[in-house]
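User: structure tokens for this one?
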Amino acid sequence: MFTIYIYLPDTLADWELGHITAELQLRRFFKKDAPHLELKTVGYCREPVRTMGGLTVVPDCAVGDIATGEKSVLLLPGANTWSDPRHGAIIEKAGEFLAAGAAVGAICGATAALAGAGLLDDRPHTSNGPGFLEAAVPGYRGQRFYVDAPSVADGGLFTASCTGALLWARQILSYLGVFEADTLAAWYTYFSTGAPEHFFALMQSVAAAQTLLL
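Assistant:
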């Protein structure tokens, strides 16, 4: 069983989590033998947070409640508040995850928080374009590992720009192994192009998988 921890900083960017959390929660396109998942929202404390879109969200648990293991996944969305020192505990936890072989996904401003802790110094990663991390993190030393792409997967580390949420979601879904390969390909192509033929391909891939199991 995978436990997916979703960190909730104040002013988190709602849209950056939308694709991945919706699919993990709904399980609408999951394959028959997909691993069981548990989603938990996490705050630096248990007080409600306010998203960038104005939604109020109450975390399920605090950072101290997180269990680190190979089947743990930590998702860090962008926000305007990553410079707040109260987020230091979750970045320390991200380091523990990576050291333990667990997965960490960071998008937009969260990549700067990882860079500030030195967690991107020697691993392929991306962020909000060349020069962003240098400007945001004076001590950043990962320039030679920077990849100018919407989202980059390196083992269990997934980093993305603020416009890379869809590809980031695809990479995390692939890592978790919850979709059949053709379902994941159709899902990504449909949501990235909007072309109706890819919607039908998505539906057919799910229907075909269900037929094989009858």
